[in-house]
Amino acid sequence: MERAFIDWLKSQTEANRHPNLILGIGDDAAIVDLQDGSTVISTDMLADGVHFVVGQTPLKLIGRKALAVNLSDLAAMGARPVCAVVSLMLPKALGIDEAKEILTGVLQLANEYGVAIVGGDTNRWDGPLVINVAITGLVDRVTPPSSTWRLDGAQADDVILVSGDFGHSISEKHLTFTPHVALALFLRDKYYVHAATDITDSLTIDLAAIAKQSEVGMELDAAAIPISKSALEKYKNDPPAALRSALQDGEDFELAVVVDRETAKRIVEDPELPCKMTAVGKMTSKRKFVLVDPNGTRGSLEIKGYEHD
Amino acid sequence: MERAFIDWLKSQTEANRHPNLILGIGDDAAIVDLQDGSTVISTDMLADGVHFVVGQTPLKLIGRKALAVNLSDLAAMGARPVCAVVSLMLPKALGIDEAKEILTGVLQLANEYGVAIVGGDTNRWDGPLVINVAITGLVDRVTPPSSTWRLDGAQADDVILVSGDFGHSISEKHLTFTPHVALALFLRDKYYVHAATDITDSLTIDLAAIAKQSEVGMELDAAAIPISKSALEKYKNDPPAALRSALQDGEDFELAVVVDRETAKRIVEDPELPCKMTAVGKMTSKRKFVLVDPNGTRGSLEIKGYEHD
């Protein structure tokens, strides 16, 4: 949805800020002070024809994805997921067995991640399949700003680290990706992270969101961007297109963290790191978006991606 | 959705019960132990043509209803609402102003009830309007069974008290009803409630759910059922139809609590009660559903209502 709309909603809720609220609309998830802990809450709605295609996408993977995108949001906050609720609008063409198939996809991933499915709402209708998951997790009591993984904490000269690789996720990964909860909890425990997000709209859009909210610029190193096998294969005769796919395709659901130079070095060399992380660029005091070519040429970085229109 | 489906989902989640879970699927909301408090979580999904009609229902009232039904769920748990997230699938025919109108309906009610709107997800698509709200609230740390307003706590000879009146809610009330949060918090503070629910599917269906889960029967007193003005007017030449409407129509969103005889008497006479409550019948050890006619004749009570098919 348009940023302007989210900004409007943010301003409406801030006009009357709730006393329990630590971090509200506009980040990957919200943080709420409930009793003595900080509760992290997020939600995502997926629909047939937009985020999956009934008849082409296995039903179990539709359920899996609906929870996985929420787990990815909590990973982007460094939060431990605890429980989730699932809502469905079921088209009349799908019977109870199909509904169970969808929920089984949710439940299997929930068990894998130790998440309790604690409720939901299921209705039938004449429209297409819609599934919504709302997830609740925990972070240790937040001592600002050291332990809140906000979007707006990046500083000039900070290094951008990303998990995994990027591009052409539509071939399969957008349904089968691993939400980086383990990686996030490992990093949160051991390192001071300035800002974090998960890559959903595209590498450039989501990193630019960190830069913009942190009021800094950003420089990406083209030669360092990890390009997925799937993108390399699809664009094997057109390397610039493969890079573009890594920078501008959506739904990679990798984790990006922004840390100072010294911390970045320690993280990438940490022998206990649950999965490889790559330094892809840095934040800059000059508020521009720059792409450095393999031969060292600096050009303008196009901020583009899949935007649900 | 069919009870069998919910039972299946419940059994799936109980096979692998989460340690933080106090009360899971199958009640009005879930209760989760987060740090030192108990967090109550619920969600409801509403869709065009099922729960409202775009073009006939004012957009603000659609947003209001989406939050109000969730507030009603928390009231049914005796919980204080804290925050909510809102997801939308917006049909392309609705512009940003219409989206804001819907959210304004959510926000106005949120402010009225001291609820923080802390996030959400908004997408456009070719389908009809869908809106989902997931809500989080608090109850004091639960000392089972005294303070959990579950469905399964009713005992034989307990009295059933309800707020407000019933029937033909479709004329307006299903959009403008008052979620009974204040009443619920008042009762929770002062009285020992055995079981509670909000009346969504119908008076008979939702009270029967308490009876079934509590393994008791139920006897309703026809003369005592408060019938709404709207139902009395619509069926002014057919009093039995007005009673049927009160017993079997859905979406009244009144609060029902089940308490012992002595407590019931104290509640209905409490001068500080935020709104009138009426004793409409009692739970019975004999597991039957009985309707007592104004003339004292005992007949079978039909358990019927609006079931989303």
Could you write a compact summary of the structure shown?
The structure is a homodimer of 309-residue chains. The first copy, chain A, has helices spanning 3-14, 59-75, 96-112, 173-176, 181-190, 203-214, 229-234, 239-248, 261-269, and strands spanning 21-23, 30-34, 37-47, 80-91, 116-125, 130-139, 159-163, 195-198, 217-221, 255-259, 277-284, 289-292, 298-300. The first copy, chain A, has 309 residues and is of the alpha+beta class.
List keywords for this structure.
7-stranded mixed sheet; alpha+beta; 9 helices; 309 residues; 60s Ribosomal Protein L30, Chain: A; 13 strands; 6-stranded mixed sheet; Phosphoribosyl-aminoimidazole Synthetase, Chain A, domain 2; homodimer; globular
